[in-house]
Amino acid sequence: MPNIIEITDFQASELDVYARLSEGQLLNRHEPEKGIFIGESPKVVERALNAGCEPLSVLTERKHIEGEAREVIRRCGEVPVYTADLDVLTQMTGYSLTRGMLCAMRRPPLPTVEEVCRGARRIAVLENVVNPTNVGAIFRSAAALGMDAVLLTPFCSNPLYRRSIRVSMGTVFQVPWTFLGEKGSWPGEGMALLKKMGFQTAAMALKEDSVSIEDTRIRGADRLAVILGTEGDGLAEETIADCDFTIRIPMSHGVDSLNVAAASAVAFWELGK
Fold first, then answer.
1. Segment 184-230, tens digit of pLDDT
2. Structural domain boundaries enclosing 184
């Protein structure tokens, strides 16, 4: 039976994860084993549960307890299910809940780069992509368009931020991912590790020697890492210099670049397995 608890006190400490803790506080960098993330909407929470994530509590609009969230709540077992009408929940959290449901879950331990890349032929590497919306959109494209894994450099936004999870539609729980080394280890150590694992590297950048993503040498690579850069500045010059190829998307009407999330979708479509 679900443990339904009607919200009567906005200041109750058990509601802090939904109403008062920042993403950084939820992440808990000093004690990562105690880190928490927030899944939003029944579909996203379902995908997190399918991936083995542990639910801690649920916050849901009252009408969804026997509606859209019913099956997800059942799968969460006896964790507390805090509930109220939507206007009350919006006032408490500061935003409108997607499909009227949030779920606080334990952050899973990160796998190693070697574990994530084992058996992978096509991976994406994100360099310093700091916008959670872009990170989530890239994951959704990676899942849909045949990428086997995603690696993120240390300064990237965390894929388990609430907005990233929501934009990805929960695909952050379907595509294997991890961070590539510690701060200061990219591109040197990280690039060396990719090459040690047998990946050819393709930097997406506008350079004089850039070749089309349709180039047969790239499409024919046995193992390929597609490297995408930060919003605005793109990839670092050192990263581009260390890559086997520099690639670009052919464009029309004088357009020379796309948003990193849009560019990733085109590249994954062309180069994914």
1. 889 999 999 999 999 999 999 988 889 999 999 999 999 999 999 99
2. 113-271
Predicted TM-score (pTM) of this structure: 0.93
User: Do 40 and 132 belong to one domain?
Assistant: no
Considering its fold, how many domains does the chain have in total?
Answer: 2
Are residues 201 and 258 part of one domain? yes
Considering the domain architecture, whether residues 50 and 185 belong to the same structural domain is answered as no
Do 96 and 47 reside in the same domain of the chain?
Answer: yes
Q: Decide: 160 and 136 in contact? Cβ < 8 Å.
A: no
User: Does the N-terminal peptide bond of residue 159 adopt cis geometry, omega within 30 degrees of 0?
Assistant: no
Residues 66 and 152 in one domain: no
d(CA 74, CA 42) in angstroms, rounded, equals 12
